[in-house]
Amino acid sequence: MAARQGGAVGGSVARAAAGPADDLARARELLDADGRTVVAVRGDDVLASEERGVRPLLWWVSAGTSLEGFSVADKVVGKAPALLYCLLRPRAVSAPVMSSAARTVLEAHGIGAACEVEVDRILNASKTGQCPIDASVTDVSDPEEGLAAIRARLRELAAARAAAGGTPASGTASAGGAA
């Protein structure tokens, strides 16, 4: 699920990071390597995952991982992941796509936020409506309440898939105690 590595990751050359700006640049560079969906960098410390959605963040929250001092690059950041980042406490979060609500939440909690494209809302996988995980925290501002709402929505989605004869996606029901 999540990898903790020091030095080189995925063939990248290890180099001493001069500071937070270098950490964020390295996280962005590593994000594009080998299908990673989220990368956190602090000097030579690198945390990375290829899991989709909020799963890696839930895993880190449940494991008691602190991202203090880390700079994070994520593929897409909506309000739900932003609330989880508030619990993880990174220095900064960058994403190619970020919702306005996510930026507001991150900045309100003293976390730097950067993106290439800021959108009103994050769409679901089929692009037919809002992401169901983000929809679960529309009226939530407290990160702990957000965590509970996210876990509840993941349980609902897993139950709906099971009732429809499908199986939950790998890690969805159990990620970070979501079941």
UniProtKB/TrEMBL annotation:
Pfam families: TM1506. Gene3D superfamilies: Hypothetical protein TM1506. InterPro entries: Cytidine_deaminase-like (IPR016193), DUF1893_TM1506-like (IPR015067), Hyp_TM1506 (IPR037081). This is DUF1893 domain-containing protein. It comes from Olsenella absiana.
